[in-house]
Amino acid sequence: MKKTLSSMMVMGIGIGLVFTNPASAEVNLPNSNEKFEIVKTHDGRIKGVESLENLKVEQIDHILNEMGFSQDEISKMNGQLKKDIAKAGGKKASLEFLKKEHEYTNLKGNKYIIGDHNKESIKNIETEDINEILNRNFKKSNAIQYMDPPSMVTDQGQTFNLFAIYQGEQGSNYVYQVFSSQFWNEMPRIRGNDTLGIAWGDKVKALDNTDSARQSWFAGDEFEQTLKADRSSIYGTQWKIPEINNSTARGVYTSQKISIPTQYKDSKINISSGFVHGWGQPNYSFKFGPSATIDLSNANGHHKWSLNYNINVGS
Question: What is the pTM of this model?
Fold first, then answer.
């Protein structure tokens, strides 16, 4: 475990990618008297930047902007995540939003999909559960609100997202790095262990030894630790995120590289991400399915959030 500043995952960046037909452009980055070369391929991918130590925040933001991220998306990113993306190279993958879902399962095992039509009644049900749990001396939290696509879910209490970087062709496959992260800016009203998972369909394969996750937290100072992935499913990767006693904020930053055969160019391939926070049992495990589904079975007393997108293959 090491002390760090708003730490993120280390992602095995920029290894063995072939950049074809590169077009090099020297540009003056913001607040810099030096020229910095950004190498771009014919299809718009940026070659990963090896060294970022001497670059300012504005310069790194400029690199991400060249990769296709909007200023609004960049403004919501953790500083270390920006560096990781710039080092990884590629370009923002073309994703088509499918759905978002917020599910609540009470302590009796009853499942509710939360929407505008029932959120107040579900809040009352949750309050009953919380009153029961508070007798065990747990603390309080905020509800979660969804923002519009492309990928961000945020409010005072939590940020949860899903996006991908297209990293080009390797042999007969397209390679993507899929990112999902979650951060509690305020600790949940009932504290406990969390689980985050990334899932994909049966036309997709995870690349060996390319999963990565790092948990960071504040407890008088800032700390981090690496999390071990559960790769037991061919349809997804998940990470157990332990509760950190006395933390005032905590988060997890994950990624997984995947490959899609080039024969599926211009088709749509589903990816998804799920996050669960619960208190009915010590740990929660996801079940992944061949259509990028993320399910929980026999698990009571939890909130689950999910994001679902199509990758436009080859872009």
Answer: 0.76
**In whole angstroms, what is the distance from residue 135 CA to residue 155 CA?**
27
Chain-centre distance for alpha carbon 293: 16
Q: Enumerate the domain spans of the chain.
A: 18-89, 92-315
Crossing angle of helices 79-88 and 57-66, in 10° steps, is: 50
The pLDDT tens digits along the chain (315 residues) read 443 323 232 222 222 223 334 344 444 444 444 566 788 888 889 888 888 888 889 999 999 999 999 998 888 887 878 888 998 899 999 999 888 888 888 888 888 888 888 888 888 887 777 677 666 544 444 333 333 334 445 444 678 889 999 999 999 999 999 999 888 877 776 777 899 999 999 999 999 999 999 898 888 888 889 999 999 999 999 999 988 878 888 889 999 999 999 999 999 999 999 999 877 677 889 999 999 999 986 677 788 889 999 999 998
Spatial neighbors of 128 by CB under 8 A, at least 6 apart, are 106
